[in-house]
Amino acid sequence: MPPAAVMFTQTRLDVAEAELSELEEALEALGRPRFHARQIFQWVYKRGVTDVALMSDLARDLRSDLAASCTIATPVVERQERSEDGTMKFLLRLADGKHIESVFIPDTPAQTFCISTQVGCAMACGFCLTGKMGLVRNLTAGEIAGQVRVLAAATDLLDHPFNIVLMGMGEPLHNYDDTMKALRMLHEEHGLAVSPRRVTLSTVGIVPGLERLAREPLMPNLAISLHATTDEQRTRLVPPNRKYPLAEILDVCRRFPLKRRSRITFEYVLLADVNDTPDDARRLARLLHGIKSKVNLIPLNPAPGIPYERPSDERVNRFAQILADRHLTVSVRKSRGRDIRAACGQLIVEGGTKKSAAQTMALLMGR
Ligand code: SAH
After folding, report:
1. CB 52 within 8 A of CB 70
2. Cis peptide before 2 (omega within 30 of 0)
């Protein structure tokens, strides 16, 4: 655990970056009782209050002490778009002026927040728009958890159950420590008390990260972005495959400690005439043999600058049928929010490192 002093950068404590135990220590360092940390957590997470002055069950002098010595950095909603299917995309501004996108997907039947873990992404998957940005920086734990606070408040869900999918911008296992810390902060019972069973972490399969994840006390559901059935093809679509090839990823999956009745989801983006043939489907079924798995097929969400096409529904169904015939559980992901570019792989904001601002704007504008 980092010493409380770490959080007093620029002499101010950022409550949004603290786990409960760290906040307790910080209060002690201020000469205050530890139990106030729980009250503060309730205000910040359960009630969405980030102004210390409004925390009415704290003594007045404590409030003024805190106002002088801490901040509660919270992403600011800069733009909010609503799709015709109810999906909402949020453009959030972070403390340093960088931007990320987060998405609310209603009634699937669950209420789901799709959260980012990085500004941009270093994985450079060939069909993903975020990958075009390159990695700008990791998000902090407070910024990851902060997206959930902001979206839950904006959608009136602070008091309702919701799911979290780490499927926004970025690769969660490439920002391991902050992602896991954010999950601990969200799990805190005096805060939003999000059960790990309601969280799904989606990854390209960074093997050392998967091995660490397998030992976590607080274990989210796991989704692996597979997308191909041979190393040659996967390396072309998902470049990290060069370092962590299919056999290694599937080997970790085979050994992954799953709770009773839980399974690993394998995501497979279908690209017309690239990875959507009956042979691909049969190979996929063979690869997953012996793994407690389910397959989530994602027909490509096309985007400007992405050199692939979405297969026909007929082709998607044929692929799904081959898997089902081999006793795999298959679902086809309905793409949500495409009219506002909130669907998988369509999240991108300006300021990426690989593209000039003008190029990125051109992508955003659709040309
Ligand atoms: N980096 C993580 C999480 C972010 S992406 C990962 O790769 O798993 C979440 C899912 O959306 C991944 O399965 C990703 O491959 C998929 N995706 C990316 N671009 C897409 C696109 N254009 N169409 C459909 N799905 C896409």
Report:
1. yes
2. no
- Kindly state the tokens that stand for 269: 């983006």
Q: Which of 113, 116, 202 to mutate to test ligand 1, by most ligand atoms within 8 A of the CB atom?
A: 202
Full-model pTM:
0.92
In the residue annotation, 344 being an active-site residue is answered as yes
Per-10-residue mean pLDDT, the chain, length 367: 50 93 95 97 97 97 95 97 95 97 95 98 96 96 98 97 98 98 98 97 98 96 98 98 98 93 96 98 97 97 93 97 97 88 81 44 38
d(CA 23, CA 2) in angstroms, rounded, equals 12
Whether 81 is a known active-site residue: answer no
User: Separation of 260 CA from ligand 1 center, angstroms?
Assistant: 27
Q: Which residues form the pocket of ligand 1, taking CB atoms under 6 Å from any ligand atom?
A: 123, 125, 127-128, 167, 171, 202-204, 225, 267, 269, 298, 300-301, 303, 306, 344-345
